[in-house]
Description:
Layout: E1 2-7, H1 18-33, E2 39-42, H2 56-66, E3 71-74, E4 77-78, H3 84-97, E5 102-107, H4 112-117, H5 125-141, E6 145-148, E7 153-157, E8 171-174, H6 178-187, E9 190-192, H7 199-215, E10 227-233, H8 237-256, H9 278-283, E11 288-290, H10 292-305, E12 310-315, H11 318-332
Parallel strand pairs: 1-2, 1-12, 2-3, 3-5, 4-5, 5-8, 8-9, 10-11, 10-12
Antiparallel strand pairs: 6-7
Amino acid sequence: MKFGVLQFFGWPDRRIPIETVYERALERIEIMDQGGYEAVWLAEHHFSGFSVCPSVHVMGTHVAARTRRLRIGTAVSLAAFYHPLRLAEEVALLDVLSGGRVDWGAGRGFDRVEFENFGVPGDESVARFREAVEIVLEAWRSEKLHFEGRFHRFDGIEVLPRPLQKPHPPVWVAASSESAIGWAAERGYSILMDPHSAHVEIARKRELFRTQLEAAGHDFGGREIPMARLLAVAPTEQEAEAVARRGAGWIVGSYMGDGQAQLFDPKGIADTPARQDPVDRYLQGVVIYGTPDRVADEIRRLEEEMHLDYLMCAPLSHESFISFTDEVLPKLL
C-alpha cells in the first residue's frame, strides 16, 4: 500500500497569522519527505478559510524547493477556472522545477461561490472542465497544438515548457458522481476518490469504475486509485473521537453552516438521512479514528474490503498527523 497526505490549509481560527498556517503545513511536508509517504496532494480552494490555497501550482513550487524525493500532487487543479493553456504551462513548469515529481490531479470543483466569482456558469462547469483536461493533455503530447472545441480553438500553438516526465506527468481526475466516473472510465483516465463518501460507497464506486473502464477497452491492472480518507489518531479512543467529531463539525459547518448552504454543494453531506446528524454520519463510516493500533487495524480491514492500495490521508489535527507518521505508518509499511 502507498501512502500520501491530502494537505489542506485550513484557517478556522483567524487569530493566528496566515503565514503560520503555511509554515506548519510545510513543516509537515518536510517530515513526509523523510520517508514513508509517496506524495503530498495539495488542495485548491478559493474565498474560504476551509483551505486557503488558491494556487496549488505556486504552493507546489515552494514544496519542491523544500523537499527532495516526495512527489507533489494536485488534489486538485480546478481546471474549469483556468485558461487551459496557462494550466498546461504552469503544471509543466512545476514538473521541470521539481525534477519530474508532479502527479497531476484535475477536478471540476463544487463551490458555487467559486463558480459565480470566476464567472463560470454552473451549467457549463462540467463541459469546461472536461475540455480543459483534453487541451492540457493534447498540449503536452503535441509539438504544435491543434484543437477545436466548444470553448477554445487553437491552431498550431507551441506550449512551453514541456513536462520533464514523458510523455507527461501521471494524471488523475476527481470523480465523485457516477457520471464523472463514467466519463473518466470511457477515456481511460484514472480517478481520485473523495474524502466525504462513506467507506462502503467508495468501494462501490471503485468497482463501478473498474467495470466501466474495462467495458471501454481499457486495462485496470496496475492503476493506482488514491482514496482520500479523513483521519484522527490519539492515545485513547475518547480523545480520537473528540478530534474526529471536531473535524467533522468543521467540515459540515464549512459546507452548511453560517448561511453557506446556498453557496456550497454539500457533496457527501447530501447523502445524510434526514434523521441522522451529518457529523455522526462522518463518524459512523467516513472518518478513520482511534488509537494507533485501532487505526492500523482499520486500514488493514479497508485494504481488504475496499481494495485500498493507495491511502490519501487527510489528518484532522497536527497531532493526528504526527501519531500516524510515528506510530501507525511503521506498522503498515
